[in-house]
Amino acid sequence: MEKPFIEKPEGPAPTDLVIEDIIVGDGAEAVPGGFVKVDYLGVDYETGETFDSTWDRGGPVEFPLPGLIQGWQEGIPGMRVGGRRKLIVPPEMAYGPAGGGSTLSGLTLIFIIDLLDAN
Length: 119
What we know:
Pfam families: FKBP_C
Catalytic activity: [protein]-peptidylproline (omega=180) = [protein]-peptidylproline (omega=0)
Order of helices and strands: EEEEHEE
Number of helices: 1
Family: Belongs to the FKBP-type PPIase family.
Shape: globular
InterPro entries: PPIase_dom_sf, PPIase_FKBP_dom
Enzyme class: isomerase
């Protein structure tokens, strides 16, 4: 699929994980604790600026779900291969409160995730 575009949201950031299917896939289903192969775009909710994109760094990546941020661990299971999902992840489910060990600490993050494979 083509690289998505995320418009800068209006209003305050949600405090709970938001899961929104953009395209519902019809392939294998991602399961808690499984492996996923994805393309994704991540932006800062407040600024709308991209902080990471597999489209910009040469291709998809494969991860074990247990090694990812909580927002992905809870937001990806149930997706089917071929699907595209938007997650809005509050800091507590991403990289923790401001002042943490990441430049993304304290930020609400938006991800568009294309599920390419799941097992």
